[in-house]
Structure formats: C-alpha cells, structure tokens
C-alpha cells in the first residue's frame, strides 16, 4: 500500500480521502532534519506553507511520485529538482478564490462604515454615533487592479452592490473585461477615478510598491485602498504618510511586506486604517476546499490517473517528455519574449511549428508557449495544466499552423502575438546539444542565445548607434555579455539584441530611446 506523509496541519477531510488509497502518516510541524531522514519511505507528500521541500529532500526521496501543496504558492518547493526527478507537484489555485474575494469586500465595507472602531468604542461602554458617520459604496467607482479569478469575483460582487468598475489588467482583453462589467483603463486613470482601489495581482519586480508616493499623489482625497493579495505591493511608509496627512481617506490591509507585521506606524493610526493578520484564505470552507482538492489529486496520481493542477510538466510519458523537453523550454522562452515585446496585453497568439516539429504532438508546445506568455503577469499561478484555461479567460485567441517544408533549421517554433500595440513575432530553434537560439525578431534574421537580461532596439541601420548604446551601458556600469544586429537592407531598418550581465538601471531605457535613429527600445527579463 502506498505511503503518504502529511507534514503540515491539514483539514481532516483531506486526510480521510488519502486513507482510501494509502497509509497516512500525519506529522504536522515536522523538523527539516526528520523530513530529510524519513522521506525515502514515502510515495507522496502533502504540505502547506510550513514545510520546505528543498533539492536535498527531493534527492533523498526514492519513491516520491507527487508533492501536494494545499494552497496556491509553491515557492517552498524546489520545482526544478522535482521536475528533473519526475515528481509531479500540484497545488490548489482555486480553493481560496471566494474566501479572498469576500475578505476584500468585507474590508471595503468595514472601512466605509468604521465597523472596527465603532465596535471597540461600544464595547468600551461608549455611545458615539455621530463620530462614526460612514460613506456608501453605492454608485462609487471601484478600481480593480488584476482581473484574475479573485479580481473577477470582486468585480461581480461590486457590480451587484451598484458600483461602477474600472479595471487595469494588461493581460486581459477588453471583451473579457466587458463581460465582467468592467471598463479597462490604464493605471494612472484608475488611480485618478477610483473611490476604492483593490489589488489582486502577484508580487513581481513590476508590481512591488505599485502603491507608492507617486501613485498615492494621483488619488482622490476620498480614495480608499484594499490589499488582500500580496505583501509588498504597497510602500507602507508612503501609505502611512499619506493617511496621516489626510491625502487619502483610508486603507485596509490583510498582507504586509514583512509578516508577522510586528511594529508598524500603521498600527498607530485610527479608524482610517483596518489591519488583519493575513486572513484572506482563513475560512473553514477554504481550508477544507484546498485540503480536499489536493488530497484528491494525490489519490488520483497514486491510482495512475493524471493530476488536475500540476505546476510542473504533468501527464507526459517519460519517452515523450525526453524528446520534447528542449522544445518545451524553447516555446516557453519565446512566449515570454514575445509577450514582453507586445507590451503586455495580447489578444491573439499564432503558433507555427516548422520543419520536423510539424509532425510532432503540438499540444505540449502550445501550452508551453502560453505558459511563457502569461508568466510575467501570473507567476506561479500559471502552469502547464491551466495555461490554456488562463489564456481563454483572458480572451486570447490561439491558432496553430504547421510548415514541414521549412528548412532553415531541423525544427523551429515561430510565435506571432497581436495586441493593442500591433503585431510582434519571434522565432527560435535548437542547435547542437539542445542549445536554444532566437533566430528571428519581427522578420529580422538573428542568432542569439537567450539570457536573463536583454536589451532590444528597433532602429535605423546607421553609423554610431551601436557605439552610443554601448557608451550609455558603460556609463551605468552595465556589462555587455553579447550583442548582435539583424537587418534586411543596408541602412534600412534593423534590430539589435544585447545580452546583459545586469538588469538595466531605472532611467537608462529612456536615454537609449533618445538616441537619434532608435525607434523603440525594450528590456526583457527571461
């Protein structure tokens, strides 16, 4: 009989499902040393956020077939090590959707009617009705930043409350937003218009301190901010100053840059602030839902069935995976690249399999390309199982074509993304020993190995441009790892790809774009 180790506190409903097919050892708060020592005897591991499944733990796991995370984030699991060893990692991306959305609405209502402060006052023996005059949300404008599952549910509830909805999500189509009853706007306009601003995005380098001194200055003095998404989306010191000076009306936070919160100037403020200790997923139903969801997937995998929400590569036979694995990496890299070049929102993605790939199973390659396209926005929430669904929910039309006659490389992948800013295309291929190469950008021939940090320019092919760009990079102490220019005609249009050892400092991109002859410059992080 298979053996399952549950090393964090899990709802009993999940344990009961596991006992149907396996011998279950329930040891919450297991120490790292004990986990490393005992993991070789288990076929499955079920965790929450407490257990760290490191590469040494995975290497020691002789029988492990699946790791189940009862929740969304899987940053406590070494996904690369698990995938390399053929271990499926699953999570529960939808189990706490309703709980998190409802908590955001609850905070908005409590903030509007001073519920917390009035409750404390009454329990202290006071009756101060006149001091707790609130505001109605009816006919107010709510700005929803991020229209994923949680943001979409908040939008539906806000609409039912009679609110006007503006939304920002560069990865969702206007048609999808319209279906939800939201009007897509840019961030600056959202901050200008909204009476309430609710955040529903992952924390990434782009979204860290999304709410800061500059963006707070754009808001109405009556604006109220709600964050039940991720800590670090708000510059808490800047928020404190804005609240203390009365430049905005209020804020309700469930997540913080450092948790537990500890000492914070926000705690010294009064009714204009509501703080809760990361309760977004803390409902009985959510805890039960994620436990059942993940336990069912562990049960299915132990019975030889596929998992529903694997966050690494699921469902492929070992021999198929071995054959396609480098092309999946290529497709994901190209998807990530073309999405960043397209400027965020993509309405359509055309995927062309060329050469020998025209005869292969396209589905895994299509999914890998979509995963790459959506990863900058969704991070760990997008995986090889839900990429197609996430693309569909965002109104992205996907088409697939094949060209077996293409002969420049044995097998290559071409992606074309269409969005509000026009069409962008990239092509890539594998060289000897599965070495990835970007071979074409917007029909300009090129041959560049993808790197973590890249600078791409579209410019006129004319003397001096390369030198000026190099001088700018040198003046900011940015080291160039490699560079190549692709062109069709001498002194015509050209593209330049520069591989960098360091990310581009703030402000440098604007200086590069000011060089005469450069039409557009992009930074890409792969």
TrEMBL record:
Keywords: Amino-acid biosynthesis, NAD, Oxidoreductase, Serine biosynthesis. Residues 454-526 form the ACT domain. The keyword NAD applies. CDD domains: ACT_3PGDH-xct (cd04902), PGDH_4 (cd12173). Pfam families: 2-Hacid_dh, 2-Hacid_dh_C, ACT, PGDH_inter. It catalyses: (2R)-3-phosphoglycerate + NAD(+) = 3-phosphooxypyruvate + NADH + H(+); (R)-2-hydroxyglutarate + NAD(+) = 2-oxoglutarate + NADH + H(+). InterPro entries: ACT-like_dom_sf, ACT_dom, ASB_dom_sf, D-2-hydroxyacid_DH, D-isomer_2_OHA_DH_cat_dom, D-isomer_DH_CS, D-isomer_DH_CS1, D-isomer_DH_NAD-bd. Its EC number is 1.1.1.95. Gene3D superfamilies: 3.30.70.260, D-3-phosphoglycerate dehydrogenase, domain 3, NAD(P)-binding Rossmann-like Domain. Catalyzes the reversible oxidation of 3-phospho-D-glycerate to 3-phosphonooxypyruvate, the first step of the phosphorylated L-serine biosynthesis pathway. Also catalyzes the reversible oxidation of 2-hydroxyglutarate to 2-oxoglutarate. Belongs to the D-isomer specific 2-hydroxyacid dehydrogenase family. PANTHER family: D-ISOMER SPECIFIC 2-HYDROXYACID DEHYDROGENASE FAMILY PROTEIN (AFU_ORTHOLOGUE AFUA_6G10090). This is D-3-phosphoglycerate dehydrogenase. It comes from Gloeobacter morelensis MG652769.
């Amino acid at each position: 009989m298979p053996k399952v180790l549950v090393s964090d506190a899990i709802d009993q409903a999940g344990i009961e499902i596991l006992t149907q097919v396996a011998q279950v050892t329930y040891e919450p708060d297991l120490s790292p040393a004990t986990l490393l020592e005992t993991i070789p005897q288990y076929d499955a591991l079920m965790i929450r956020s407490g257990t760290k499944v490191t590469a040494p733990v995975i290497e020691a796991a002789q029988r492990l077939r699946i790791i189940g995370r009862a929740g969304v984030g899987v940053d406590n699991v070494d996904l690369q090590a698990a995938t390399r060893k053929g271990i499926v990692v699953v999570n529960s991306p939808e189990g706490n959707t309703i709980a998190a959305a409802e908590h955001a609405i609850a905070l908005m209502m409590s903030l509007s009617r001073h519920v917390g402060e009035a409750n404390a006052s009454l329990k202290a023996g006071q009756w101060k009705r006149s001091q707790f005059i609130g505001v109605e949300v009816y006919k107010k404008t709510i700005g929803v930043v991020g229209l994923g599952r949680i943001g979409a549910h908040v939008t539906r509830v806000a609409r039912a409350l009679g609110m006007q909805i503006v939304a920002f999500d560069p990865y969702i189509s206007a048609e999808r937003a319209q279906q939800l009853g939201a009007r897509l706007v840019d961030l600056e306009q959202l901050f200008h218009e909204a009476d309430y601003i609710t955040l529903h995005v992952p924390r990434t380098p782009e979204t860290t301190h999304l709410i800061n001194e500059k963006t707070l200055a754009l808001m109405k003095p009556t604006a109220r901010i709600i964050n039940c998404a991720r800590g670090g989306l708000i510059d808490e010191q800047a928020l404190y100053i804005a609240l203390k000076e009365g430049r905005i009306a209020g804020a309700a936070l469930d997540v913080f840059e450092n948790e537990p919160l500890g000492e914070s100037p926000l705690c010294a403020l009064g009714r204009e602030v509501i703080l809760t200790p990361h309760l977004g997923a803390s409902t009985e139903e959510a805890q039960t839902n994620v436990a059942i969801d993940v336990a069912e997937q562990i049960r299915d995998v132990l019975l030889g069935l596929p998992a529903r929400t694997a966050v690494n590569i699921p469902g492929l036979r070992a021999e198929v995976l071995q054959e396609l694995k480098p092309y999946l990496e290529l497709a994901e890299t190209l998807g990530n690249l073309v999405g960043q070049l397209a400027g965020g929102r993509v309405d359509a993605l055309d995927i062309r399999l060329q050469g020998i790939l025209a005869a292969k199973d396209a589905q895994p390659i299509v999914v890998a390309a979509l995963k790459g396209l959506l990863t900058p926005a969704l991070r760990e929430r997008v995986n090889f199982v839900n990429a197609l669904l996430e693309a569909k929910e965002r109104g992205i039309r996907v088409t697939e074509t094949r060209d077996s006659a293409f002969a420049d490389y044995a097998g290559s992948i071409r992606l074309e993304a269409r969005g509000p800013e026009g069409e962008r295309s990239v092509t890539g291929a594998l060289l000897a020993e599965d070495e990835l190469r970007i071979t074409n950008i917007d029909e300009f021939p090129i041959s560049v190995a993808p790197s973590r940090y890249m600078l791409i320019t579209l410019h006129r092919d004319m003397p001096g441009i390369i030198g000026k760009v190099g001088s700018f990079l040198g003046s900011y102490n940015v080291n160039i790892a490699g560079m190549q220019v692709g062109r069709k005609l001498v002194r015509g249009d050209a593209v330049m790809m520069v591989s960098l050892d360091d990310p581009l400092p703030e402000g440098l991109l604007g200086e590069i774009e000011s060089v005469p002859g450069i039409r557009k410059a992009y930074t890409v992080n792969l």
